[in-house]
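Sorry, I am new here, but would you mind making up a protein's amino acid sequence and the tokens describing how it folds?
***
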Amino acid sequence: MSLIDTPKLMLEWLRMRFRSNDAWLIGLALVVGALAGLLTVFQGNIAHALQAHFYGLPQDMRLSSSVLLTPAQLLVLPLGGLALGLFTLLARARRRALVDAVEANALHGGRMSMRDNLIISIQTILSNGAGASVGLEAAYAQMGAGIGSQLGRILRLRRSDIRTLVGAGAGAAIGAAFGAPLTGAFYAFEIVIGAYSPSTLAPVATAALAGVFVAQSMGAPSYLLTAPAGSGLMPRDYAIYTALGMVCALAGIAIMRMVAFVERQVGQTRIPVWTRPMIGGLLMVPLVALSPQVLSAGHGALHFDLTSNATLKFIALIFALKCVASILSLGFGFRGGLFFASLFLGTLLGTLFSQVVNLSLGFTLVNSTDASLVGMAALAAAIVGAPMTMAMLVLEATHDFVLASAVMAAVLVASTLVRQAFGYSFSTWRLHLRGENIKSARDIGWIKTLNAGQMMRKDTLATPNTLTVAEFRQRFPLGSATRVVLEDASRRYAGIVTLAAAYADGVKGEAPIADFAQIKYRMLNTDHDIGAIMKAFDAAQSDELAVVDDERRVLGVLSESFVRKRYVEELEKKQREMYGERSDEPD
């Protein structure tokens, strides 16, 4: 054995261990989580260093907690937008959408491009570093998920294992950012993997713990500082916070629709794409001049507003300014997430809710701190689409199980209303606007791989429709087939003839076989997935359909019974994977 073959054999040995043993996969998830935590700290430090340089911040100060900015500092946003636009112009040589972790797990079996990951990370860091009203969560989750995807692909793991590692990496990154492993784990389940299953519990939890451990070992501050909860809750408080959850659901839908509206309106203009972030930065300058709290994700502002006794007018102003700033930032092309921005907005909305209720009644009914925490979780659940994640975030921040129960009620109401009235979270809504029919990261990519081209029977030869019935009977005696595909003089699909029709009593031998052709206008293309195939069978009311190319030339035949059999086989395979049953079968 040569030295050249040794690494290949070692890689193959590792691959077999990871594919056949859960303990090995958990060990790999631990490595992914540790790397995700390391990358989270690294990216956060770069973004904060840019903010400190451009805005002259002290080392321990957050940008959104700044009191006053100079005129020169107000120009950082448009100049940062110009830098972002130029980078995007250079990086996007290939005109295709960048694939994030949710899309990768839903459609591509967890396969992610490291080039895409780096582009998204740099775009997000530039946006946040310049002060745009977006968070770094998109970069954290992208790079964490990308590490999981790359290791899974190098080791040639099965599809389900790669998807698990993608979720584990993203969850570890979020857990490291917030200093909250439960939050990170539930983020992986709800946002990136799209389901809870026994086979993913241990890898995801291990990765989240590893990510938090690495981040805290490096001295990284948690995004969300521990917030004190109020007094114990009474039964009426659950009804009050359920109402707050409804308000947060409506606010979340409005924010998501406004982002899409601004993005669509900007896209319809003739403004060059690379100049749009600069224009968005210019539009944000008056907002920043009114209050620097609209800058960045709002970490410092959240802590300040939670611990201060701000007036109703001030809270309402900051809420409106932050909404507009986030909408302008995302609508004009800044890259980032709404995760932390929605947390900040939720605290403001919860505080507004409590103050309005208390002023209306003339006495204190709703605890302002509790309401701000419930609003924080409910609005984030409405926008991000992860109710359990937000409930765990409040629990890990306050260590108050009683308050967490009220938060649970609010987030479930908020997420349910958004799902019923809107149908999407922010990440899947943006994919929907691109034409993807995705409502979660649940794996539907395997459905697209079960297409007509992959399943069709290719040994079927089409027969000319110029034959007479007698000639057709000579070629196809009774029992030789059930259906025969016809083609016209141009060798294009011309329908299907059943042998029962050709041999029916009273059919004259000199009659053209074309007269007995059925399903002339129902056919399949090679890229039709199993969903489209089943709809075609239902519409045609036939047991078999022809598969044709773009010029309607016959490539093969597909039977409904075979399609259903393959679909059931794949469903059973996914069920086994969900419960952790392992095998060495190739994907």
User: Anything to note?
Assistant: The chain has three domains: 5-225, 235-433, 446-570. The chain has a mean pLDDT of 85.
